[in-house]
Amino acid sequence: MTLSPLHPHSPGGMRAEAAHGIPAGMPSGRLPAPGTPARRPAPTPIGRAPISGSETLKSVATALDVLECFALDDELGVSDIARRLGIAKSTAHRLLSTLCSRGLTEKNPDSGQYRLGLHLYELGQLAQSRLKLRQTALPLLEDLRRVSGLSVHLGVIDGADIVYAERLETPAGRELLAGVSRRWPSHCTSSGKAIAAFNAELAQARRDIGFPPRTTGTIRSIRDYDLALAETRRLGVGIGHGEAVTGISSVAAPVRDLSGRAYASVSVVGPSSVLIGDLDRTARLVRTVAGHIAHRLSA
Fold it and tell me: What is the pLDDT of residues 126-158, one digit of tens each?
């Protein structure tokens, strides 16, 4: 899609100097004036404490947390970031300024608020283009969008969540999915159910973290979650009816390796009123496409 045997800088030279009362590191042949102290390291400038490695790593982590704040909001102000992360406004402003200097965020001159920068988009596109799964799946996903007439997702696992590595929208789907995140807790999406039903690690990760509600229809207990996964295994597809966003439904099939373990999903998403009426056909389509992707990746 790897810098004489008694030279003052030699160990022997240092011993010789010390034996004659010459402080280590002082040019040989020149004795210090009486009362002259030995040379010491330069002191740290007043007002500036040395930065430890752990502090640097903490700052990096906080900067990444700043970027995560934009996952659900197009624009945010300094106060918004400070409040969400529990940091001082001056710290939030400093981090945003640093991120802006690297093109990872930018300031909207009209609103005075901050948003993700184009360089972050460029890096994201580069990561996408290098993802073998996406490269293999893309032409099949385009066919699925054309045949189904609906928007299509390629889902992958990240912890206990599902991230849509690819989203192909129809014109109507573009409006429907405007502002809809690409990351979701796995229990409230058809993609999450499709993978978790055939991936014990993902299923347990979600049980351990819990089931935060997104709508009135979101799964909220281990019992209901396990029942949904059993039904997904029976049907071969995961189904979500308004569990992540009210009025939006989806059907997803798992992409599985030769051992049967799921590692990705293919889903079709649309208005609940449209998808429910053609559920069987949509299920067949996503199962077929997921199977073709799995076959090509294992060949």
Answer: 777 668 899 999 999 999 999 999 999 999 999
* 142 and 203 housed in the same domain: yes
Choosing from 121, 149, 172, the residue where a domain stops is: 121
Residue 31: C-alpha distances to residues 8, 13, 35, 42 (Å): 13, 15, 11, 21
Q: Is the dihedral of CA 122, 124, 127, 133 positive or negative?
A: negative
Mention every residue, 6+ apart, whose C-beta is less than 8 A from residue 90. Answer: none
d(CA 280, CA 37): 88
Three-class SS of residue 65? Answer: helix
From 196, 163, 191, 165, select the one nearest 248 (Cα to Cα).
191
Domain that holds residue 212: 131-298
CA proximity to 276, closest of 249, 253, 238, 254: 249
Indicate yes or no: pTM above 0.90: no
Question: In this structure, what CATH number is given to the domain that contains residue 66?
Answer: 1.10.10.10
In which element (H, E) is residue 59 found? helix 53-68
Q: Which of 128, 272, 127 is CA-nearest to residue 190?
A: 272
Low-confidence winner among 6-15, 117-126, 185-194, 226-235 (lowest mean pLDDT): 6-15
Determine the residue type at 66: V
Chain mean position to CA 30? 61
